[in-house]
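Complex 330.
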Amino acid sequence: MDSVIVLGIESTCDETGAAIVQGGRKILSNILASSADIHEKYGGVFPELACRRHIDAILPVIDEAIQTAGIIPPQIDLIAVAKGPGLVGALLIGMNAAKGLSIAWNKPLIGINHVEAHLYASMMDLETIPLPALGLVLSGGHTLLVRILDVGRYEPIGTTVDDAIGEAFDKVAALLDLPYPGGPHVERLAKKGNPKALSLSAGKVKRSPFDFSFSGLKTAVLYAVRGKKKVESADVAASFQETAFKDIVDKTSLARKTFPCQALFLGGGVCSNQHLRTLFAEKFPDLPIFWPPANLSLDNAAMIGGLGAKKFSGISDPLDLEVQARIPIA
Ligand code: KG4
Ligand code: ZN
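Predicted structure with zinc ion bound:
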């Protein structure tokens, strides 16, 4: 598996991605075409428009990934495609392209769980992975805390019962009239605000100490913004960010006390947030924390190709593979 060349394909949401990865770790190319620009005016992903862009982008992006890597299709050993979770229409476009190429080029095909791939993004650099570990996926669609027993062996510990953390950032951004996707804008604005200006709290889920709930927090922000008392946008952004992140850090800390671990692996677009990184570093000075590199934290195909090489275990009929809008990680 050290030299296996994988074409990774990603189309779960609003990014069309293709990448060539060697041996599960070496990224030869990582190409992305985003349709975020067309979703901006809707304040969130408009699935049908995302699908139309995927259709236009998928083959050119794959072509560019192959050319940038300096290889030719016969050198590809395996095709790995994100099979879910995600928007069904969007997933189908990546999946059908992958199936078509798998048959045309006579290459094996493997379906990859996109959320698992977000976790793999922070392991991709490592020769040996410290285990058992804790994993935390913080993205626009997912908030997931898991025990990692091995690559491919996970025990879910907690998840969100309503909004995902990135979704909460995007909704708060919309309340503050900031563009979509809102996370980076909220982070920027929060730097100028007082995180203690508003007294907010994140949700606790009864009898599920590791589960998350951000919809009440988002509603509290709505009341603060629309309320009679004048509040500064920067203070709202800072207070929201602090409250949401402290909740994540505290629940991770409780998980660490409950489930001994050697390291913490993080993944997903929200990991681009520098304040989040600071809070984790402060809370866990003695625990190795692995963050995805900048090019692998948002959706991308390199993490799909990398994990494909790790997980491939045998040839099966590519036509048997189906997309899944929802899939558990274990
Ligand atoms: O992983 P990702 O590209 O997509 C999903 O798989 O969902 O994550 C996108 C999410 C968006 O909600 C975006 O607002 C959020 O990541 N995000 C951030 C930051 N950069 C991106 N959230 C907070 N702070 C950031 N700097
Ligand atoms: Zn993602």
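The pocket of zinc ion (ligand 2) is lined by residues 114, 118, 139, 268, 299 (CB under 6 Å).
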